[in-house]
Design a protein that fits this description.
This protein is mostly helical and 1338 residues long. It is built from 71 helices and two strands.
Length: 1338
Amino acid sequence: MAADSSYNLAIIHYYAREKYYHHIQQLVLECEQKFGSDPEFTFWRAYSLIVQNSISEGMRELEGIQDKRDTILCSAMLLAHAHKKCKSVDRDAVHSLEKRVKTERQTCGERALYLAALYLWLSGRHDKAREYIERAIKMSSYNIEALILHGWIDLTCGRESAVKKSMKFFEEALSISKVQPQPLDGLLGKVQYYITRCHFSHALEVINQAIASYPDCLPTLIVKMHVQLTLQDWEQSVETAHRCLQIDLNCIEATRIIALNLLSQDGDYSHASVKLGELLGYLDRFEPNNHQLYYDVSLAFTRLCGRSLIVLQQTATLLERAIQLVPTNAVYVTELAHVLKLQGNSRESLLAYEKAFQLDETSVPALTGIIFWQVMGDKLDEAEQQIEFLTEIQSSIGKNTDLLYVSALLAQKRKKTADSPDSVVMSLLQEAIDVHFSVIKGHPFGIHYIKLLDPDLLVQVARILLNYAPTEPSPPGSPVSIALKRSNYVLEPLMKFTPGLVDVQFLLAKITYLSGNSESGQGLLQKCLDEHDGFCDGHLLMAEISLHMKAPKMAESSLEKALSHSFEIQNSPFYHLLKAQVERQLDSHVDAFRTLTTALSVMKSKKSDTKLARPQGQVFYQQQLTISDELSIYLELCEAYCQLNRLTEARELMQEAATKFDGTSQGMRISLANADLAVASGNTEQALTALKAVGPDHPHYIQARKKMADIFLKHQKNKQQYIQCYKELANHQPGTQSALLLGDAYISILEPDKAIEVYETALKKNPRDATLASKIGQALVRTHHYNKAVNYYESALKSLDQHGQLQYVLRLDLANLYLKIRNYTKAERTLQVSLDHPEDNQLSVLIEDTKCLQLLAKVYRQSGSPQQAFKALSSAHDIQNNVLKRVGVEQIESVQEQNIVASTIAFDMAEQALQEQNYETAERFYREAILHNSDHYESHLALAKLYLSQENLKLAEHELVTLLQTFPNDDNATLMLAELKFHSSDYVIATAHYKQILTRKPNCYMALAQLIEMLRRAGQLDDALPLLNIAEKSSSRASFDPGYNYCKGLYHWYRSDPTVALQRFNQSRKDSEWGEKALLNMIEICLNPDNETVGGETFKVIDEDHGGTSAAEKQDSDMMALHTAERFIKEMRPKTNITGLRLQVLSCYTLLASKKKFDAEQALQKFVEISSAEKDFIPSLLGMATAHVILKQTPKARNQLKRISKLPWSTSFADDFEKSWLLLSDIYIQAGKYDLAGELLTKKCLHYNKSCYKAWEYLGYISEKEQAFQDASNHYENAWKHCYQTSPNIGYKLSFNYLKAKRHIEAIDICHVILVANPNYPKIRKEILDKARLAIRA
């Protein structure tokens, strides 16, 4: 044999071990073309033909090599085997061949013995193979191939002692080998040894060594792929599979692994089905006669597919191929029957099981399948006889999981069980579980393990167990139901090994929820629905959990999603039951009544077997109501009758329910419901009598005692009997739950001292119970005994071990208490102690550290240390990122909860960055918060607000629209969207949004205030008055509401009525929400009550000439207003940095008000300091320009004002922009640059505020100077209109221009209006009124 062919022979041996027989033929053909004809190659071709039932062809191949020296033994053995497989066995030929083997083995060489041993080993005859190979080794102790084969024989013989020795032969062979690379068979043997001994990391090291030696060898990559799978490293295994496909695009094993990954890890049934179709094609092309391989490939997929019809169709095809090749194989037919069963094809499945039993009457799986269909077909007596027969012979064949499972189904059908956890069904299922897990124990993870695990069977077992679990979540502190524990035990391995199965995720979510952990259950279920949005069962369970968590809107959304995926769900009473519960929580009692009536009608018409949509082509399940669900419909409807005060119908319905459920396990629920009905009817004594009948041993005892206690407290006002109920409960059912209930009862009647006694007594019995320890401190805090609470926490912490769970809970409570009483130093110290522990990478510790750091950041923030707060949040952020990486693997039910924590941390960091005006960082963390939790309301809103402040309207609108899709009626988002439209000058849409809010909520004063602002800028301020009137009528106390008074003040200020505005703002200035805004407005009114252009010179002389007040009076009035403004400034406590800066600016304006050079220079210096600290801060820039004007530095003022005019406009500084444009226009007018002034007034001032009467006044002045009296009168008309006829100076100018434009009557009308309000107004009577009258007479 040529030395170069040894590598190819190792590949042939690999294919022979893995039963890839057609691959052997292809490789032999390639070797013969490369190395020439050789007896060994011929033997392997014959071997592959014979094992695939091409016996005649294989025998012809052997005829030419049966006399060859090296193949004489193996060819004789294979020929004998071929004769035995023939329909008519040639006994003489077999005898002759066996005799020849006995003769030749005495004289043959070591190669012949080696090949004979190799064939015997592949045939499963380990002892005989060992005998031959030992003889070969005796002939040559350095025969490397013989040593390696000896290792393989020992490794696979099944005897522990031999397995241990096998590594010695592999090591010896590899050490003898002088040729590099080392023999492939030996390396693969070592890998298999390590896998058998569960030393998977060592196996990976050796296979990597083999790949390094044979880089283009496909078998080494395939082995590595399987080793990675044993390590449960699916990602690396799939990556290696893709490497295999690069070498061989049609690699069967690689395609098999990829398809399994799609099912087990991703739950992607459609793509898995496509991949399985490709795999079937490869088998048809490259292993067309390999019936065993068709069968083997189907097994894992059938049990892993979650009964997906599209996947089961592919596995059925695989089995049909195997049966076509070997029609009489009972095992294959039985497996096909199993697939048909999973497809729900009862008739065809039963026929297949019967056919398999005919082929092999000893087949227990076939008989078990027949029994299953007998049970399902209610042929219970026949099934029981068969089970008894099989049970008797189990002592010889061993217990069978499938038979125990079918026995449990029979017991369930026989109704031999009640709801007791010690029922026959529960016992049988527990036995089935124990047998099942004992079978798979010790097997390394892989394809064979998945087949043995049989996820589908375990899911069905869990479903039955859940029938005996409570239908309501366990209360805090109560023991978890045994049925829930067992079903969780069954499903946990599936979640570990096959997390992609939708049923496993769904059932574990349900178990977690029913165990009393609603949030974790919701998190698990949400992950399931994220991957399988069309899963109706999941949406219904999500609705149920949301209802339990008192989130009816979320429940309603889940029901809508379920309905959108399957309209058939409307035929499910359970759907209507959940819908009614949603409506009841939303206080829609009439709708709930109608829905429950529909549910009862559907249930009675027996339409409850609705088939609900399953994800990705999965089989439909019958959505059947449990007896508990049926009674729930009656009870909910009864409660609806009570809500509508239809007590007679409620009693009739309860009588019907009592008759229907008589003798069932639901009787006590009816008694409790009758007690509620008696209370609704006012007969509390009857209710108490019924409730007292519930004994301590009954499962509903706690519920009954709680109802009794409520009656005593709420209806009979008897606190003593109320407490007595909980005392009796604690006596009869002692434990943490009872102690908590009794303690909470004392708290509810304001007896915290007794509550603490109860908690302390319970804590002595359960010293490690964090809930009880925390309750004591909380009771003290609730009663405002803060010092006692601090002393309790400190003494409790001293008595505990360091860094335990209880330590953590108490330290967190203590830190919160210190924060509450504003003892920031001790709060910080307490949290630092919790964080000061040795490095610990346990997930629970990391989660605790994150909570501590979040609270520490809050402490720093409230104590005025923003940088420290951000540092603490950064640490929490880093730890939480680590938590998120691990929680998906180690604690999958907490993924959603931890994402919410990460979202909160990112949001807090964004808020901190925003306060520091680091807008880029703020945006990044807001985005991160949304990434972790797409429904994070605060982040969407804050991000939109940030974009709006930066004038990035497109991005702001995107965030708001996204938010409104989730929260369609949210006032804040609608308010901001209206503001955005206002920014875009889209006043119509903005008004519509504001009015939409005010229609829903007339007293939404934030919307009303913004709408008044917008209406003023749109020149439609009069439209605000009806809205104010509606708001006033919406509440009897509206006139006292700070928000209403603020809006009213705003309205009067914009109507140029500063006195009333001040009065209204004054009623708001002490309010926490409106006070800051009101004070700022009051200061501005005091500093500039007549809304003059501060620093402007244009109207100064004219206004002085026409003013109706003496200079002395005006000076006194101005001084009084100035002192009032200074008092308000001192009163202000700014909440934000921007407000603080604005207050500094207003303080500077008090200096400018004196018009003195020294004060103006001081103000200018402060304005410069503010502008240096805050770039482009419009109020300070305007202040600088105003100061320059007062100091007669007009060019400097003009430069500052030009700088402002080039900056982008924003609503935050709208008034400051307007004032700067007016002052610049005034400077232009003084310089005679009327065109520049006119452009600025038209394109800036009036574009953003159509009510700016000062702009209209300036335009009128310009037209008047240009002798365009008609235009001037039009401009003054607008100014007169928008100052609401309160400025006699504007009225004078308007009447003067009417006179010049020969509009005498209008001039006279204006004069009368002015003189009514200002009878002593100078010159107007003589210069305008008299002249106009003379002109009319003339």
